[in-house]
Amino acid sequence: MALAASRWTVLEQGMKEERGWLQVAHQRVPDLQTVKSTEYDQYISLYQSLSSDLAVHHARIIQLLGVAHRLQEIVMCRDLDARYDEHLEVILKLQDEVNTSLRRLLAFGDAWSIYDLMTDKLDSWMQRAERELNSVSAQTVPPGGNMRQFWRAERELNSVSAQTVPPGGNMRQFWISSQLSIFEAKILI
């Protein structure tokens, strides 16, 4: 009986600690609705840390459920396992939510890196095209102009701008967009 009392105490204390931790863990989950593109890496770190903590506490709850199962072999107590299964369900649901959000953040990070690369590429192309445009003067171009060069530049502009996927609410995207408009206006003049 002393063994059963000892295991019961360990079980109750452990589940009480896990219940408290789960309440805190729910509060630690950051809201992704407020993430800015400059903060995504911080949110990835937060979610990775939380995911790691959840894995540790998941293992602890599994261990405590094992204690409950062994205790039920010693003492006849109906539905002792079921009484603590709720903790396992809660942590599994929270793990799923956190891992889903973490995957979304990692995918955004990949997309953002590609976006950054494409905006740098676009910026470089615009500078090169600006230099080429400045080198072409009205005296060197016959009436009617060099339409082939114009359409090539127009096609490149559309191609490069189509590859740049703008995430919403970003000042850099706004700047690039305005630079494209200015550049396009210069080409058309």
From TrEMBL:
Keyword Membrane appears in the UniProt entry: yes
Where does the record place it?
Answer: Membrane
InterPro entries assigned to the protein according to its UniProt record, in alphabetical order: LINC-complex_assoc
Coarse class of the primary localization is membrane
**What keywords would UniProt list here?**
Membrane, Repeat, Transmembrane, Transmembrane helix
Q: State the name under which the record lists this protein.
A: Uncharacterized protein
Instruction: Give the taxonomic lineage as stored in the record.
Output: Eukaryota, Metazoa, Ecdysozoa, Arthropoda, Hexapoda
